[in-house]
Amino acid sequence: MSYRLSVSEESKVALEQMIERLKTERPESSMTPSELTDWIIKKFQPALFKKYFDQIANDHFNIKAFARTKVSTLNTLNDFENLYKEIKEKMKTTKGTIERKTDGE
Is 94 buried (19+), middle (13-18) or exposed (0-12) by CB count in 10 A? Predict the structure, then answer.
């Protein structure tokens, strides 16, 4: 299976630095950026994904998706009031990590 990935400029620079170091310090090893990215993902997933799962989810929190999921379970005005409080709290706890994402906004 093949994916095309977009990475931040910071990640691109880091990947280029790792490739350059491999070429310089271990010239017998040949690795493309795609191969190194594949290797990193395979090592990260079992070792660190579970540990950082909540941080990843919070860093990429989408208030609209969260609200959509919760609204579908509302039955009473009290449920709505509780949801409103939960959304306000969720926004507070995710504020400051990175800019909160919304669908196309």
Answer: buried
Residues 6+ apart with CB under 8 A from 49: 56
pTM above 0.90, yes or no: no
Compare 94 and 43 and report the one with higher pLDDT: 43
Which of the two residues, 105 and 43, has the higher pLDDT score?
A: 43
**Which residues are bridge partners to 101 per DSSP?**
62
* pLDDT (average), residues 84-98: 72
Identify whether the C-beta of residue 61 lies closer than 8 Å to the C-beta of residue 100: yes
Beta bridge partners of 62: 101
How many whole angstroms separate alpha carbon 95 and alpha carbon 61?
10
Q: What average pLDDT score do residues 23-27 get?
A: 94
Question: How many whole angstroms separate alpha carbon 14 and alpha carbon 10?
Answer: 6
